[in-house]
Automatic annotation (TrEMBL):
It comes from the Bacteria. Residues 1-193 form the N-acetyltransferase domain. This is Spermine/spermidine acetyltransferase. Transmembrane segments: none annotated. It comes from Granulosicoccus antarcticus IMCC3135. The gene is bltD. The keyword Transferase applies. GO terms for molecular function: diamine N-acetyltransferase activity. CDD domains: NAT_SF. Keywords: Acyltransferase, Transferase.
Amino acid sequence: MQISVGTPEFVRYRAAQLYDVAFGSKLALAVPDEKQRIDMLAKGFVLEHSIAAITNGELVGLAGFPTPDGSLTSGIGYRSLLSDFGFLGGNRAALVFSVYDRESRKGELLMDGIVVDASCRGQGIGTQLFSSLIKLAIERGYSTIRLDVIDTNPAARRLYERLGFVATKTERFEFLRWLLGFGASTTMIYSLQSSDP
């Protein structure tokens, strides 16, 4: 398996498909049609803001991360949403995406999503992606990595805890569960002060 910072262009559409498998239920509030959603992701991904796991020429894992210059999803902007989905659909998508927007703090690398192909789970790919992300964060001078995990994904939370992430805060919004598909989000932090990638 090859791990690379910056996902190769030739797997762009597959990256969008994988991302949609992991986050499609959240994104469907903004863009209900699966093909339109995947096309939007494929067109809008800024692949340099990601780490890819590739086996035999196939993308099997992806981790996104933001920098001051952008993020994996930063190519999906208000104008492109209006252009792709019209006035009503574009504004609805922009409004929903704004709910998911998060700001990073100084010295903190904020995760922008991680996904491993379902047929390849349990093979250590997620762990290797995180190891590469930790190495990248240390090289770039970050002191922590932050991510948010939703209450409907306990397997992901267990993985993050095994990797050394510590839960610091849980926000509950049960009143939005009917809309979002989840009712709580937990912020988890990984300290790079004593890390060994």
